[in-house]
């Protein structure tokens, strides 16, 4: 069934504008249930990925006396963001189009202490035989022009339901604390700076900040390795 997700669609009207006491057509209810079910699938896929990461982190905390993962964040893309992204790409705004064309409806962000932790965590995750790697973009080795750095993967993980097993796509972003700090502030300023940054001065300063942060990440990793070279383990209590 082709389910229209656009703000002017009947499904949107039935969910947002129709009072509780008004009789809602069955077809609208059916479409709403289908949308809810698909979004539940993405939520379950996030849970699967987070469990894998938590198990790996717990193992390494015992094995190496150090947790490479500082924090795990997750989100399911909001309906309005889904609609806007499909429209930007000139794609049909429907449930089927979302599932087929969008790889980042489900997202997991992993925050690590050091740059080498990023690659270690990524390698451990994709080594698992039930994880399918769809795409990888290394914005650490190849930063975006604005200075953005992060390691991105699109993966598929199996989710077991009562009557089926489905592979669901999840976008995984892995970055250091410093990278996450910069990206969060840049995102917060994204729309504001478009009104005031006509000469590109603010963008240039943000790019300089990103470069400084990257240099700090490299220096912190170098210091950790120097300490470890003396036979002292760097651990997080």
UniProtKB/TrEMBL annotation:
Pathway: Purine metabolism; ppGpp biosynthesis; ppGpp from GTP: step 1/2. SUPFAM superfamilies: Nucleotidyltransferase. Residues 74-195 form the RelA/SpoT domain. PANTHER family: GTP PYROPHOSPHOKINASE YJBM, GTP PYROPHOSPHOKINASE YWAC. This is GTP pyrophosphokinase family protein.
């Amino acid at each position: 069934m082709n389910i229209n997700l656009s703000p002017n669609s009947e499904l949107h009207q039935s969910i947002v504008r129709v009072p509780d006491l008004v009789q809602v057509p069955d077809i609208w209810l059916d479409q709403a249930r289908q949308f809810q079910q698909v979004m539940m699938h993405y939520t379950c896929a996030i849970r699967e990925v987070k469990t894998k990461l938590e198990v790996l982190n717990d193992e390494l905390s015992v094995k190496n006396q150090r947790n490479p993962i500082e924090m795990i964040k997750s989100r399911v893309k909001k309906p309005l963001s889904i609609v806007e992204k499909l429209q930007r790409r000139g794609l049909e705004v429907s449930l089927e189009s979302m599932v087929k064309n969008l790889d980042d409806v489900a997202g997991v962000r992993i925050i690590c202490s050091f740059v080498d932790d990023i690659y270690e965590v990524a390698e451990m995750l994709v080594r698992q035989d039930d994880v399918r790697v769809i795409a990888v973009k290394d914005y650490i080795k190849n930063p975006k022009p604005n200075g953005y750095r992060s390691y991105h993967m699109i993966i598929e993980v199996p989710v077991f339901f009562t009557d089926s097993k489905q592979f669901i796509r999840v976008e995984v972003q892995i970055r250091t604390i410093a990278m996450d700090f910069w990206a969060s502030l840049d995102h917060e300023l994204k729309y504001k700076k478009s009104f005031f940054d006509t000469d590109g001065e603010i963008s240039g300063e943000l790019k300089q900040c990103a470069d400084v942060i990257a240099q700090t990440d490299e220096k912190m990793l170098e210091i950790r390795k120097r300490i470890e070279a003396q036979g002292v383990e760097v651990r997080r209590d």
